[in-house]
Amino acid sequence: SAKKAGRGSFLFFEGAMAEEAAANRALESDLRSALKLGELSLAYQPIVHARSHEVIAREALLRWTHPVRGEVAPDLFVPVIEDAGLIGQVGNWVLREACREAAGWVDGARVAVNVSSAQLAAGPALVGHVIHALAASGLEARRLELEVTESIFLAGDATTRTTLDQLRAVGVRLVLDDFGMGYSSYACLTNGEFNTLKIDRSFTVAAAAPGRPAERAIVESILTLARGLDLDVTAEGIETGEQAALMVALGCGQLQGFLFGRPEIPFDAHTAVEPPFGTIPKRRPTIRAA
Ligand code: C2E
Ligand code: MG
Ligand code: MG
Ligand code: MG
User: Fold this and answer.
1) Interior CA angle at 88 toward 136 and 21, to 5°?
2) What is the distance between the alpha carbons of residues 237 and 205, in angstroms, rounded to a whole number?
3) Are 270 and 280 in contact (CB under 8 A)?
4) What is the mean pLDDT of residues 163-187?
């Protein structure tokens, strides 16, 4: 019967969830040793001016090379870091390391750091980490961008807005990442904290695909909205010349994607870094992305 089938699929999900929980526990213990051994690093991906292709900023993206599993995707391990209550510690390291790296860039490009809702929920602690990362590196506040997603507003927490205001007061720039994917996009913009909207890759890709007039109209309306609110716009996930040309034609000012550069680990990252978590990181040869 339908009832029986329903119960069956419930048991299936329960089993799948137990399996996932066990996998996450294994990942969590591996992560704890990864932090001790300095196995985490940051890769940087350029964000370019849409017409001149000049590098405006570079986004710092966490990388973890697991001794057995190899590269683990951040979409997989960042949630585990959050659930383990380690995001404050790791996020602080990311901030300090990204600011230190960017302070050495001769082209003066900004650095963009992803900040998860769990980090933002820490409020004053995050603001303190940002201030310290800037002070320790000597990086000017206006060269640091923090990328947050709409999910930070889901809790409906007033401290979220206070924290965003405090970060703006420090002088850093705020980017609304993955724009278009959430449910309350417009409400996120009413307080004017953000400098930049980042159009999610799914829209970038679909807008340039034949037979997808809806996505194209959505991208056009995001750009109109951004002009009205005096916001910069970055289109993420640009892989082809057609996608880039469309975004330029629609008036998008900044582009990011494999067409302009993949996330790359800087050459000196494993030798010049201060010990991330109180231990000396292993020196290892750096493999540069092609
Ligand atoms: P995100 O912030 O939206 O980052 C963009 C993702 O798209 C990155 O994946 C990047 O490598 C990928 N990407 C960029 N250009 C292209 C392209 O042309 N084609 C395709 N197919 N992909 C492209 P990545 O590095 O796997 O990161 C995934 C997510 O993990 C990030 O999404 C971000 O939400 C999170 N993340 C990464 N580093 C950190 C971090 O330091 N802290 C926090 N809290 N989250 C992070
Ligand atoms: Mg991002
Ligand atoms: Mg994004
Ligand atoms: Mg994303």
Assistant:
1) 150
2) 7
3) no
4) 90
d(CA 48, CA 196): 14
pLDDT in tens, 200-223: 999 999 999 999 999 999 999 999
Question: How many helical (H) and strand (E) elements, i.e. helices and strands, does the chain have?
Answer: 10, 9
Q: Note the pLDDT tens digit of each residue in 247-272.
A: 999 999 999 999 999 999 997 665 44
Question: Are 39 and 75 within 8 A, CB to CB?
Answer: no
User: Which ligand lies nearest to the CA atom of residue 57 in the structure?
Assistant: 2
Mutate which of 148, 236, 247 for ligand 1 pocket (most atoms within 8 A of beta carbon):
236
Determine the residue of 114, 129, 238 to mutate for testing ligand 1's pocket, defined as the one with the most ligand atoms within 8 A of the Cβ atom. 114
DSSP one-letter code for 147? E
- How many Å from the N-terminal Cα to the C-terminal Cα in the chain? 55
Residue 258 near ligand 1, beta carbon < 6 Å? yes
Residues with CB under 5 Å of ion ligand 4 are 178
Question: What ipTM was reported for this prediction?
Answer: 0.98
Q: Which residue has the tokens 């050459």?
A: 267
Q: What share of the chain is helix, strand, coil (3-state, %, to 5)?
A: 50, 20, 30
The model's pLDDT over 14-72, given as tens digits with 9 standing for 90+, comes to 777 788 888 788 889 999 988 888 889 999 999 999 999 999 999 999 999 998 989 99
User: Could you tell me if the CB of 62 is within 6 A of ligand 1?
Assistant: yes
Pocket mutation for ligand 1, best pick of 59, 78, 147 (most atoms within 8 Å of C-beta): 78
CA distance 34 to 28: 10
Radius of gyration of the chain (CA): 20
Q: How far apart are the C-alpha atoms of 14 and 111, rounded to whole Å? A: 42
pTM: 0.89
